Amino acid sequence: MGNGRRLGRRFGWLWGAYGTSALGTWLAFGAFPLIAVRVLHAGPAEVAALSAVGTAVGAAVAVPLGPWVEFRRKRPVLIAMDLARCAALLTIPAAFAFGALTFLQLLLVSVVVAAADITFRAASGAYLKTLLPSGDLLVANARFESTAWTTTIVGPPLGGAAIGLLGPVATVVADAVSYLLSALGLGAMGGREPRPERRDAARLRAGDLLDGWRYILADPALRALFLNTALFNGLVMAVEPLLAVLLLGRLGFTPWQYGLAFAAPSIGGLIGSRLARPLVTRFGQHRVLAVAGTLRALWSVGLAFPWPGGGGLLLVMGVELGLIFCCGVFNPVSATYRLERTAPGRVARTLSAWSVTTKASTALLTALWGVLGGLLGVRTAIGLAGALLLATPLLLPRRAAALPVKPDAEPEPELASARA
């Protein structure tokens, strides 16, 4: 569908490394909670803390890493983050083999992996911008997006089978190996990467920690997209635990039906990502961003109304299919828009601040919606999140803003007549 353009050998290695690690992540999807429950006999509060606290603390740890990455070569950082995740994950099967695995170790590993994930994303975005010309960024991001949805379809069923045969620790090993293979692929890319030059003092200062947020908030277009992304992602993810309670508990869906309800619709993300570039070519980047960003907000309210049986299952699958298809179109266009608007010398800091905020808002809203689910009821809380999502298109950039003229320039001040 127009995405067959050759992007070169080095991008091919980067793409392959991404796909390998993404597949490993989905193979191990849900492994930590299963280990906590089955091996360590953890309770619901501990399992919830493993997800929320690990993500939040990992995001906090990653805050100083964004400015640090900005002024270093990106490929060594990518390799280091892959190796750090591999080493951290391998401590789990090692401790399990010796009967020394603890809940604290699971928590610490989740923190390391979350911080490394954020740093890897920041470095990879900055590296991609130096690797390809601007005209190829959307093609590259669409390929990453289609790979992400493909591994989402394939990974969980394979991981579930592996867990059934070998136990959850085996999928953690597979995830660790995927990061090792990713690091080897990145090392095989070859080519020279110039060291970024820092104009001011070489030592990291306290004020540098907020550079990414300052840059985002000073640009009206980036600021609007940033707020939209943080709120949308947070609200969508906040209802996932409540949906599990509703579908698996009150409506009596079986685990395979629950998995099918969310795995099968991922084909929509694959199709949407393949359509992203042709749609931008025909209708323009800003129009596709606005329309896809609006349409993706219309679906989630339907998740409050499933009923028992096949009809309810089809409703959930239909809602998820529509939501994921729109996200498949929106995400690569949004990622490209963000890279194009960010000056080359600020990409790592900006993407790091973006990821930290998104993960933190997701953790916060997930905890809040857990409380609301207990106070208002599960369906009401899910419906409330869906209703709030209907307002998120108001935060999208309202016009096609001009790109910054100077490579390292600060964003131009917002014009009084063009409010975002």
TrEMBL record:
Q: Name one GO cellular component term.
A: plasma membrane
**Localization (cell):** Cell membrane
Molecular function terms in GO for this entry?
A: transmembrane transporter activity
Give the domain of life: Bacteria
By its UniProt entry, which SUPFAM superfamilies does this protein fall under? Answer: MFS general substrate transporter
Principal place of residence: membrane
Keywords, sorted A to Z: Cell membrane, Membrane, Transmembrane, Transmembrane helix
Which InterPro entries does the UniProt entry name for this protein?
MFS, MFS_trans_sf
Q: Name one Pfam family in it.
A: MFS_1
Source species: Streptomyces bungoensis
Q: What is this protein called?
A: MFS transporter
Membrane topology value? Multi-pass membrane protein
- What are the transmembrane regions? 12-35, 47-66, 87-116, 165-189, 224-249, 255-276, 288-307, 313-330, 378-396
Per the UniProt record, the lineage of the source organism begins with: Bacteria, Bacillati, Actinomycetota, Actinomycetes, Kitasatosporales
